[in-house]
Amino acid sequence: MTRSEGQGGSVPTYGAVLRVPRYLPIFLANALSMWGDYIARVTIAAVVYERTRSPLATATTLAVSLVPTFFGRSLVGPVVDRFPYKWVLIWSHLVRASCVLGLMWLVFTGSNLWLMFLVLFALELVGGASTASNMVLLTDLFEDRHLYARAVGLGAMSEQFNQAIGLAVGGGIIALVGPETGLLLDLLTFVAAALVILFVVPLRPVRGDRGRGLRGFVNDLSTAAGDLARHPVLARLVTLSAVASLGIAAPEALAIPIAGRNGWGGMLMAAPIVGAIAGILVIGRRDVHQQNQSIVPLALLMPVPLLLTFLQPPIWVVAALFFLSGTLQAFMVPLQATFALVTEPALRGRIFSLAGSVSIAAAGLSFLAAGWVGQHTSAAAGVSICAAVCLALIAVVAATWPHRRVRTAVDHAYAATSSRAA
């Protein structure tokens, strides 16, 4: 692997990351899949809003696309550690493609919304295995941990960029050519991703000891949950990610009701995502230690711009506030990189899955909470109320943040690269 760049505290370039063998096709396949997936989400959300005209129903649609991942990631954690991640990735992509095919049929025939929710639930349930396996794949791909930290930032920026594209054009697709076309694109991206994994990713054996049978499966999961809850650094990182999700989810959950019928819903949903891209570009230029020192300050600032939406400013001002809040979401990049490197290699599949399930569950509940508040007040007020609650929760976490332990964990994680280079 490339190890020369990123040593001595310098920040490697994105070009150095992309030159790591096999990473570029994996990166492109993930980007393509994310683009199609977000187009599908906004397409289904638009279909639901068109039928119901309900902010709560629209937010519920977005929550349905996230909540099942909680169960998926929780239950598939030991699976990721028991089978080679190459085959877990391939089969999860193919099963999700089958789910999208079913979703296309339900939209085409005008079936009951609850059937759409059920298929969407199954699609995201299987996606838990893909996400955890991909995280393990990347930690194996980058021996140089400075390059890995840069790759996490590049992946997060790509996710935000492709989400912005998907959300921005999703509304246009349903208006111009119908929702089936967006879902067809989603189907093709899953198939393409499976083919890339098949031909590019090497087959590596699983590591570590595993329990036998169903009892061993359950024991592995409970042990990983205990390890995560007791860890002084990992537990705090997961907690911050979970409480911040309310401020992150509220703008997306209520963007379509705020915009109404003027066609700005997709663009308004994309505003915080474009802001996140800008924030990732800025924080990625800093050293890994400086990035970790900025986690708590940026998290505290993130919900502040959203407090002003209560005043119901013009739509372009709302978009600017959403953009600014999205920029401050950049703290999630060092948070995710540090979490991955602090986790023991033999437990990564289980720990990644469990931590992801907590974050996804928090995001899903945040969508529901934002929709409920928006339904009983107004969409603009709902964003501000959620932001205020989010700010209070982050302040509680910040008051007890283990700064010294986090700094020690970061030093230890990145010292491994310097030791190998020496």
Q: Helical stretch count?
A: 18
Shape type: globular
Flag low-confidence runs: 1-9, 418-422
Strand content: under 5%
| SSE string, helices as H and strands as E | HHHHHHHHHHHHHHHHHH
Jot down its keywords.
disordered N terminus; 0% strand; 422 residues; mainly alpha; 80% helix; disordered C terminus
Write the layout of secondary structure elements.
Layout: H1 14-18, H2 23-52, H3 55-64, H4 67-82, H5 85-109, H6 113-141, H7 145-176, H8 179-200, H9 213-230, H10 234-259, H11 265-283, H12 288-293, H13 295-301, H14 315-328, H15 332-342, H16 348-376, H17 379-399, H18 403-421
Helix pairs in contact: 2-3, 2-7, 2-8, 3-10, 3-16, 4-6, 4-9, 4-16, 5-6, 5-8, 6-16, 7-8, 7-11, 7-15, 9-16, 10-11, 10-14, 10-15, 10-16, 10-17, 11-14, 13-17, 16-17
Explain what this protein looks like in three dimensions:
- It is a single chain.
- By secondary structure, the chain is mainly α.
- α2 packs parallel to α7, α7 runs antiparallel to α11 (265-283) and α16 crosses α17 (379-399).
- The protein is globular, with a radius of gyration of 21 Å.
- It has helices at residues 14-18, 23-52, 55-64, 67-82, 85-109, 113-141, 145-176, 179-200, 213-230, 234-259, 265-283, 288-293, 295-301, 315-328, 332-342, 348-376, 379-399, 403-421.
